[in-house]
Each structure stands twice: as structure tokens, then as C-alpha cells.
Amino acid sequence: MSPRTPSRPVGTVTRGTTNPNRLRRMDRWIAATHGAALRRAADPVAVDLGYGAAPWTAVELLGRLRAAAPRARVVGIEIEPARVAAAKPYEREGLSFRHGGFELPLPSPPTLIRAANVLRQYDEEQVAEVWARLCGRLAPDGLLVEGTCDEIGRRHVWVALGPEGPRTVTFATRLGSLHTPSDLAERLPKALIHRNVPGEPVHAFLRDFDRAWAAAAPYASYGARQRWIRAVRDLAADWPVTDRPGRWRQGEVTVTWGALAPRERPSG
């Protein structure tokens, strides 16, 4: 017997702020790293969860995924009925919109769930429950990508999770706008943003990244991209960086979740 679907959508309404191209860095990373899984899937469904007051991010996700997986379909899911009604005119082959929340009102498990800027308004203590609920809805080869970005997508940090839980954390930026890597701290996802304090791994990571960036200053004469690549190369000597220079050139770096996971807080 399938799990009972809640009578009401699970979650709360977000502010709904969105802009065209805001999630391009996340989308391109997903297409590059998860495209093969989407191509293998019998029914490659991707969910744009909490797409907001306008449907631009779902429309763009479809185009970017289809460049890597031509059979991909996107379902935009929103907890606010008026937003679903406003998005309906944009439906077309491969793109639909539904009313719902974290319960994901779909007939079968999706291959991808993208939840961008959704958990920012929640308490840190609620994140693990939401992650577990969403990961439990994934297809066996599925991926949940949950993170936060600024209003025009220049700075973005996201966590990638499989059915078993969190795997990696990716930092992505428009390099021309970056002063130091720790500028990205303001866009840490909810699971990490309150942990950017001394004694926590994410704080140590950003500290070391800033030091590597400073040491790579001579490479700035060749451009911000070369400086970033050199800084990440040095950072990888002490931190478990999982990606390669091809991704670094995009202004990205990905690290294992275990290296940045919050420390357990004392009880009592």
C-alpha cells in the first residue's frame, strides 16, 4: 500500500521572490553532474519545489535539463494556489505545475528535486526532517539539491543529497563579483548558515579558503578565474574537494558533506 498522502500540502508559503536566470549556476551543475542519471531513468521527472510567484525558474530548468537529457520533464510544485494558477498558462509539453508542498503530490518518485531558497525561512532544527521527507520520495538514482542564492544568482551554495542523505556541498559564484571566498557565507543553506562560527567545520573551511585566495593573489594578473583555480587547488590539499578543474573554471568548488557537517551541540 502506498503512503497516505496528506490532505493538506506540507510546509509554509515562502516570500516567492524570483528572477529570470537566478538559478542558472545550480541548473548547469545539475545538468553536468546528474544528466546521466536523468538519461538512464525510465521517466526522468524533475521537481522545481517552491518555484515562487513566477514560473521562470521551472521554465529555465526544463531547457537546461533537456540539453543534457532530452526526455526530461519538469513539474513545478507550489504551496500557494494562486501561484499555481498564475503558472498554468506556461504549461507545455514536458512542463506542468501542481499545488503541493514537501509531500510531493506525484504518482511516482522523481529523479530530481530542486529546492532553492525554500528552507531559508525555516528553523535550523526543521531542516533534517524536511531533508528526510524529500529524500524518502526520491527514485533510487535520484538527487535532491537544496540551497540558497542571492537575488540575481551571483552567489550560491547548495547541498546535494541522495536517498541516503547529504553527500556534498557546492559553492558557486560569479568570480568578477567576488572579494573573498567567505563572501559566500551569507548564502549558506539553512543547515549551515548559523554554524559559520569558530569551532564549526564550515567556518574553518571558509577561513582556509580565504587564506588560499590571498596566497593566490599573484594569479589575479591572469584573471579571477585563474586565481580561483589556484586557490581551490591549494585548498584541496587539506579539504576533500570532489570536483575537477573543469568545474572550478565555472567558479565552483564541491566538498564532501561530512567535512562541513555541523558539530553536535551539547544537550541540556
Explain what this protein looks like in three dimensions.
- The protein has helices at residues 24-40, 56-68, 81-87, 124-135, 190-193, 201-215, 224-235, 245-248, 257-260; strands spanning 45-49, 73-78, 95-99, 112-116, 143-149, 155-162, 165-173, 252-256.
- Helices cover 33% and strands 19% of the residues.
- The protein has an 8-stranded mixed beta sheet with strand order 3-2-1-4-5-6-7-8.
- It folds into 2 domains: 24-174, 3-Layer(aba) Sandwich (Rossmann fold); 176-240, no CATH class.
- By secondary structure, the protein is of the alpha/beta class.
The level of helicity is 25-40%
The biggest beta sheet, please? 8 strands, mixed
Low confidence ranges: none
- CATH superfamily assignment of the largest domain? Vaccinia Virus protein VP39
Summarize the SSE layout with pairings.
Elements: H1 24-40, E1 45-49, H2 56-68, E2 73-78, H3 81-87, E3 95-99, E4 112-116, H4 124-135, E5 143-149, E6 155-162, E7 165-173, H5 190-193, H6 201-215, H7 224-235, H8 245-248, E8 252-256, H9 257-260
Parallel strand pairs: 1-2, 1-4, 2-3, 4-5
Antiparallel strand pairs: 5-6, 6-7, 7-8
Q: What is the gist of this entry?
A:
The protein has 268 residues and is of the alpha/beta class. The chain is 33% helix and 19% strand. It has helices spanning 24-40, 56-68, 81-87, 124-135, 190-193, 201-215, 224-235, 245-248, 257-260, and strands at residues 45-49, 73-78, 95-99, 112-116, 143-149, 155-162, 165-173, 252-256.
